[in-house]
Amino acid sequence: MRMTRFLAGAGLLSLLAGPVSAQMATTSAMPESYRQVQLNALELQRHVLLAMADSMPEQFYRDKVTPIQRDFAQQIEHAAGSMVYIVTSVMKAAPPAHADTAAYLNSKAGLKGFINSTYDWAANVLKTQTPAQREAMATLFGKSMPTWQVWDEIHQHTFWTAGQVVANFRKHGMAPPGFGFF
Question: Which of 5, 13, 90, 153 is 20 to 30 A from 129, alpha carbon to alpha carbon?
Answer without folding.
Answer: 13
